[in-house]
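Posting for a labmate who doesn't have an account.
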Amino acid sequence: MNLNMSNLIIENKRDIRLDTMRGILLIIMTLNHLGGSLTLFAAQPFGYVTAAEGFIVLSGYTYAITSKLGFEPFMARLRTSGKRAFKIYKYHILAFALLLSIAILIPSYGEYFGKRFFVKNNTEEILWTIIGTLLLVHQPVYFDILPMYIVFALLSPLVLYA
């Protein structure tokens, strides 16, 4: 069987192998967050890094190889990164709203998430939790990755330019 490696790279320089690895790392992170017996296989570091660290590194590398570094003006790269950061922010807020709704509507989940989710470990502080999360200053458990990813997206044009 003759596998032509150039078929694995899409026209905008995306490498399907990298996207596949990112997908596998997302599955591993999901298994780790859900818990259960599969965590025994997924909780260990993937080589020298954890699944989250590997995902961030591969995402940065994918961004670098797909950016039009030499062909796009710096301001256009800043706008593109701003759009990307805003898209990540929207998904962050959507996931937060979904989890907040579950925590409020289902009492057993509210008790579980109350200690990890709300400001001051108190469900009465819902307004402060919402405001803090919208401003990215309050990061409930498991909600610290996307704000970091937003910062990386905003800084990436400067790093690529340097």
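Reply:
Got it, the structure tokens are right above this. The CA atoms of residues 79 and 111 lie 42 Å apart.
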